[in-house]
């Protein structure tokens, strides 16, 4: 008999009833050091007191109003995002997938309004992940995600990851946008080199298409910059954000330049919940905390410490690990064993990690993880690797 919850997930035999910072706790009191953070969501750890305070205050005041009306909390978060990024304007969603849908719509509408309706294609890269809607799976194109769900939304061109010099020849008069994660998450913590992002910006400018960055997983201070593309010193026309911006509350956003957003006039897009006062109040608090230069400096210091310890771990277990990769606190252990086996051994040691493609185990801790917790985390992964 089918379970009452649609069985689309392969769930671990763990159930948490409480969270405290970087720790998750089962009903019997067993504590797990969480290096997954809800897959890069719990930016400031579980049940963060500052966020809880904002949530409770907002819950006592106003939860939801329709976008038929002005929403001051939404305006405040939009102002903060505009102030701290390349963007001139923002639309709020509840998830990364919805952000992907709008980013694609926005790019197509831009060219339609410019009198070039033939520009509908979006170039994406092997290993990418932009969500599970029909549009987002078509964007990914991977067999695993699209099989059985056709017909797929047309208009995506899938290129290999890494052959950046070949991208220009695939940009045609039909190309609306190039869509890329500056650091692939699900694809296995694959960092797109700064030079490649610069090249994509140049190609987009020269050939006349938009550049969209998907920073749903790598954004919001995860890599040690507020947004990962800042390392390359290039800006996109459109950017997708979600996960970390809500610190655990479902919240996403599409950020854009005024020019790229010019086709999205009243009536062209909407969302019932997107930008509701609860989500935006929390999002604003998260942004205030993580955009502080002192906070970002701490993320980088901790990332350096974590990485150094992980390099030692890789050297100690040459049969289990191949390398450490990633940026900031978005780290991956490239494995010689099946990632799922290491993750499962981690459960026995009380440490939570997340498998990804390309034989990688992801480490995406809360950005305020302590030095002691980093040391403890590496000791627990060490024990898990030894047990393998
Ligand atoms: C880069 C990226 N884009 C989009 C998504 C989809 O986000 P959501 O699951 O919030 O819809 C994800 C989720 O993992 C992601 O990592």
From TrEMBL:
Determine if Amino-acid biosynthesis is one of this entry's keywords. Answer: yes
Known pathway: Amino-acid biosynthesis; L-arginine biosynthesis; N(2)-acetyl-L-ornithine from L-glutamate: step 4/4
EC number per UniProt:
2.6.1.11
Where, per the database record, does this protein carry N6-(pyridoxal phosphate)lysine? 243
Q: Which cofactor does it need?
A: pyridoxal 5'-phosphate
Pfam families for the chain: Aminotran_3
Lineage: superkingdom: Bacteria
Enumerate the subcellular locations listed in this protein's record, separating them with semicolons. Answer: Cytoplasm
> Which residues does pyridoxal 5'-phosphate bind?
96-97, 129, 214-217, 272
Q: Which reaction does it catalyse?
A: N(2)-acetyl-L-ornithine + 2-oxoglutarate = N-acetyl-L-glutamate 5-semialdehyde + L-glutamate
Entry's Gene Ontology molecular function annotations: identical protein binding; N2-acetyl-L-ornithine:2-oxoglutarate 5-aminotransferase activity; pyridoxal phosphate binding
Q: Which GO terms describe its biological process?
A: L-arginine biosynthetic process
Q: Which Gene3D superfamilies match?
A: Aspartate Aminotransferase, domain 1, Type I PLP-dependent aspartate aminotransferase-like (Major domain)
Report the cofactor remark: Binds 1 pyridoxal phosphate per subunit.
Give me the residues that bind N(2)-acetyl-L-ornithine, please. Answer: 132, 271
Q: Name one GO cellular component term.
A: cytoplasm
Q: Which InterPro entries match?
A: AcOrn/SuccOrn_fam, Aminotrans_3, Aminotrans_3_PPA_site, Class-III_PLP-dep_AT, PyrdxlP-dep_Trfase, PyrdxlP-dep_Trfase_major, PyrdxlP-dep_Trfase_small
Going by the UniProt record, its keywords in alphabetical order are:
Amino-acid biosynthesis, Aminotransferase, Arginine biosynthesis, Cytoplasm, Pyridoxal phosphate, Transferase
Subunit note = Homodimer.
For this protein, the record's PANTHER family field holds: AMINOTRANSFERASE CLASS III (PTHR11986), SUCCINYLORNITHINE TRANSAMINASE (PTHR11986:SF113)
Q: Which family does it belong to?
A: Belongs to the class-III pyridoxal-phosphate-dependent aminotransferase family. ArgD subfamily.
In its miscellaneous comment, the UniProt entry states: May also have succinyldiaminopimelate aminotransferase activity, thus carrying out the corresponding step in lysine biosynthesis.
Name assigned to this protein: Acetylornithine aminotransferase
Name its species: Celeribacter neptunius
């Amino acid at each position: 008999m089918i379970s009452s919850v649609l069985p689309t997930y392969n769930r671990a035999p763990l159930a948490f009833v409480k969270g405290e910072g970087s720790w998750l706790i089962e009903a019997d009191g067993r504590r797990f050091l969480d290096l997954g953070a809800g897959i890069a969501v719990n930016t400031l750890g579980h049940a963060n007191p500052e966020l809880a305070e904002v949530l409770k205050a907002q819950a006592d005041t106003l939860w939801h109003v329709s976008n038929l009306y002005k929403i001051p909390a939404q305006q405040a978060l939009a102002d903060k995002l505009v102030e701290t990024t390349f963007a001139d304007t923002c639309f709020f969603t509840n998830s990364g997938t919805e952000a992907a849908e709008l980013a694609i719509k926005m790019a197509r509408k831009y060219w339609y309004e410019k009198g070039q309706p033939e520009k509908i294609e979006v170039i994406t890269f092997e290993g990418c992940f932009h969500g599970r809607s029909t549009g987002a799976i078509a964007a990914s194109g991977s067999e695993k995600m699209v099989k059985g769900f056709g017909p797929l939304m047309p208009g995506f061109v899938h290129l290999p990851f890494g052959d950046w010099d070949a991208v220009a020849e695939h940009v045609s008069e039909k190309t609306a946008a190039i869509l890329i994660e500056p650091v692939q998450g699900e694809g296995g913590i694959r960092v797109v080199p700064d030079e490649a992002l610069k090249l994509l910006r140049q190609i987009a400018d020269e050939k006349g298409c938009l550049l969209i960055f998907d920073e749903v997983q790598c954004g919001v201070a995860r890599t040690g910059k507020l947004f990962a593309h800042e390392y390359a010193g290039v800006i996109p026309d459109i950017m997708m954000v979600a996960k970390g911006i809500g610190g655990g509350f479902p919240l996403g956003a599409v950020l854009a330049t005024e020019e790229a957003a010019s086709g999205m006039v009243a009536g062209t897009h909407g969302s019932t919940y997107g930008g509701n006062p609860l989500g935006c109040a929390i999002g604003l608090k998260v942004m205030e905390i993580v955009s502080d230069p002192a906070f970002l400096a701490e993320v980088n210091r901790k990332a350096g410490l974590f990485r150094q310890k992980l390099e030692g771990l890789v050297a100690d277990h040459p049969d289990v690990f191949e390398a450490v990769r990633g940026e900031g606190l978005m780290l991956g252990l490239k494995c010689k064993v099946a990632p799922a086996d290491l993750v499962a051994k981690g459960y026995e040691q009380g440490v939570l990690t997340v498998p990804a493609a390309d034989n990688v185990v992801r480490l995406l801790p809360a950005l305020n993880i302590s030095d002691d917790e980093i040391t403890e985390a590496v000791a627990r992964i060490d024990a898990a690797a030894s047990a393998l």
